[in-house]
Design goal:
A middle domain of Talin 1, 14 helices, two-stranded antiparallel sheet, 4 strands
């Protein structure tokens, strides 16, 4: 079982594949860290809000490993690996956001960054996940190169981005400031006046180079994960939903941490929500490349449980953004702690289901 024929990682020893996997993951991490710096410069230079930058730009760029893995796995006739990586990545990214909540400490992340735009992003993420769950339960039939249900995903994504973009003109409330952290409430406001010297061409080039690095490293991650699934006996389902999802989520981890340090909290959440929606959109691409029947029609109970886990985690964030409970435990918001517990329990059940 190989993903890239020219690089038969299955023929390499286990320790070599682990080393290559770690190096590729490190490359993804470094490139992801650079991307958020460029995104912050772009947001300040153009006046575009951090939430929209996170949703569209960071969400797309940090999904490049998933694109590489999805294309490679679908081309190799492994739709289960592709779908489970995409869905597992969504759950992993929600857990990453919850884990980084401790960087703030004084208030819960969902209190500081709450905004109508983020509420919509979370709601539309759940909407697209429900479409995938319905497709798995009901089955899918081909309509041209992809299945009926897969066609609904790009339509839902386009509508989601349009509605979220339009909502920025009518904000319902402002994020709460962190006590003792002057300027935190204004951290998402554009600062175009201070960015007049920013060379947009240089920023765009930097984003392109970092994105290319993430994409190439993503292909290597796919190839080595495929070999590791065979060599360790864990199986493609669990490797896709756990190990590969962790590796391809490293850009989100690096960008979220970098955004937190810059106090761009809305950008951090927007990156995670945007990546979740973009991952689901990629199911359409996987279905188009795969030569067999519709991929969602072949997904089983393992994939369905992973999708339901993502819906549960997204719903917890949605409730947190609406309720805005300011209580923290061990520097974490209550919703973030609940997310981590749900993710841990879900991974244990998925391991048993593999």
């Amino acid at each position: 079982m190989t993903t890239v024929q020219a690089l038969d990682f299955a023929s390499y020893p286990l320790h070599v594949n682990l080393l290559v996997f770690a190096c590729a993951a490190g490359a993804v991490w470094l490139a992801g860290t650079r991307v958020v710096d460029y995104a912050d410069q772009l947001a300040r230079a153009t006046g575009i809000g951090g939430g929209m930058i996170g949703l569209v730009l960071l969400g797309g760029i940090t999904s490049l490993p998933e694109i590489a893995v999805g294309v490679s796995a679908a081309w190799s006739g492994l739709p289960a690996l592709a779908v489970n990586n995409l869905v597992g990545g969504i759950a992993m990214q929600k857990a990453i956001l919850a884990a980084t909540d401790g960087f703030i400490g004084r208030q819960a992340l969902t209190v500081i960054a709450a905004s109508p735009s983020l509420l919509l992003q979370c709601g539309f993420s759940i909407f697209m996940l429900v479409i995938v769950a319905m497709a798995i339960v009901a089955g899918d039939s081909p309509l041209g190169p992809v299945g009926w249900w897969a066609w609904a995903l790009p339509l839902a994504y386009i509508v989601s981005v349009w509605v979220i973009s339009a909502s920025r003109a009518t904000p319902a409330w402002q994020p709460r400031a962190v006590p003792g952290d002057a300027g935190a409430a204004d951290s998402e406001q554009p600062e175009a006046s201070g960015a007049s010297g920013v060379a947009l061409r240089s920023v765009a080039l930097g984003i392109a180079v970092a994105g290319a690095g993430i994409f190439v490293a993503g292909f290597v991650l796919s190839a080595t994960a495929d070999a590791l699934a065979e060599q360790t006996g864990l199986g493609a389902n669990f490797v896709g939903a756990a190990l590969l999802a962790l590796a391809t989520s490293l850009p989100e981890l690096s960008t979220v941490i970098a955004a937190m340090r810059l106090r761009r909290y809305e950008m951090a959440i927007g990156d995670i929500m945007g990546t979740s929606m973009f991952n689901l959109l990629l199911i359409f691409l996987v279905d188009a490349i795969y030569s067999g029947p519709p991929v969602l029609g072949q997904a089983g109970t393992f994939s369905l449980f992973a999708v339901l886990l993502c819906i549960l985690m997204s719903t917890i964030y949605l409730v947190g953004l609406v309720e805005r409970n300011n209580r923290t435990i061990a520097r974490f918001g209550i919703d973030s702690l609940l997310i981590l517990l749900v993710y841990g329990g879900g991974m244990l059940l998925l391991f048993r289901m593999r």
